[in-house]
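Task: sequence in, structure out. Protein: Vanin C-terminal domain-containing protein.
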Amino acid sequence: RSAPWPAVVAGAFDASRHAPRSQTLEVIAGAFRCSLTARLAPVRYGPARQAETASEAAADMYLLVALDGFWMGKGNLPSRSCLVVRCGALTEAKCKARIACANYTDPACGDGRSLYDEAGDLAAEAMFETIDLRGTFQEGDIVLPMVGLHMGQLLAAEALHVHNGRLRASVGAPLLNAMLFAMPAGTGGDVSAPGRLEPEGSEGPAGRAPMADFPAGGASRAAAWAIERGATVL
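Result:
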């Protein structure tokens, strides 16, 4: 029998033109903690928005979500997740309601639909200079990083490589969402599993796009093996 979904525990932060460049946020679901430290790029928006002549930018909100319970499948896959997701101009309440909806459309959901139901829901405009996402995953958790870009673009295999035990991915496009997703494989002490975007050229040739930096060290050996081969990363 499907288990009930846990409540969505989330906090909002602003990525619009006039928002502070530095953002720090923490949310806690039970004993599971997710923390975010982000810095917006000086040029906040992608090429489409830069080409516009409008004097003011619309609201552009993101949520940091912590989930310690069932996330995928038919309520039968236990997991722990730290998720950063774009809400755009939605209110915080509407965005939370859509995140908690398991189907594309469902009258039983608080807002009647999920966050992603049509192509326009996949648009992203804000450019991040750095983002550091951490979760207090447990020893033995298989931790998988996932990244989604503007209009649902996936990272190409050539954009991924392992450096000093960390998965690095070029994300030179507006960020739609990012996740640290863990499938529990046991219990034990807390292990921090950070993911971080580095500024352009920080540890590579000048002119490279910003990099997403996800460690294999905070995950199990099985996760490190899969990540190294790019088999489990979006």
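The chain is about 10% helix and 45% strand.
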